[in-house]
Design a protein that fits this description.
mainly beta, seven-stranded antiparallel β-sheet, three-stranded antiparallel β-sheet, 12% helix
Length: 169
């Protein structure tokens, strides 16, 4: 279908998005509320203030955690991190400073993966419902480039989320 092929020409990458709400700030639990997932619809949307938008599935734990925590961190992946796509495409399993088997640490109150090529910390400015996803708009705070290499794009590993949903074909 031409529509699918046209939409697949849009430039998208692979990122791990994380959010945490500290347990001491929650009324119903004493453990941190942590979520992480793979996303590929991300874009810078303004210069002043510097903001990005990330599209997150409405019914995901990640979307709910971002709303609770009012912040998130975007981790940019490289070609050599393709294996993380499948690890973070399902619900998060958090055990002993690992999420889905990948070690993480806390820094600036956020979850950090050291294996990313870059990290972008954001404060949530707005959540906008867009069909079956929420556009999480975050003001960019601290950014770090950990490795000066090209990011992994959907061109290197096509995503099943590119193009038109099967229900629209």
């Amino acid at each position: 279908m031409n529509m699918n092929k046209a939409l697949q020409k849009l430039s998208n990458g692979y990122y791990i998005l994380t959010a945490v709400k500290p347990g001491e700030e929650l009324k119903t639990r004493d453990k941190d509320y942590i979520a992480a997932g793979i996303v590929n619809w991300v874009s810078q949307i303004s210069f002043e203030p510097l903001q990005i938008v990330v599209s997150v599935r409405v019914d995901s734990h990640l979307n709910e955690t971002i709303d609770y925590s009012t912040s998130f961190t975007l981790h940019v992946l490289s070609e050599k991190q393709k294996d993380l796509i499948d690890k973070f495409s399902a619900d998060s399993e958090v055990t002993n400073e690992h999420i889905n088997g990948v070690p993480y640490s806390f820094k600036n109150g956020q979850i950090m993966f050291d294996d990313a090529i870059a990290r972008i910390e954001c404060t949530l400015n707005q959540s906008v419902r867009a069909g079956d996803h929420t556009l999480q708009i975050g003001e960019v705070g601290k950014c770090e480039v950990l490795e000066d290499t090209d990011p992994l794009t959907t061109r290197e590993r096509p995503s099943r989320y590119q193009g038109v949903s099967d229900s629209l074909n």
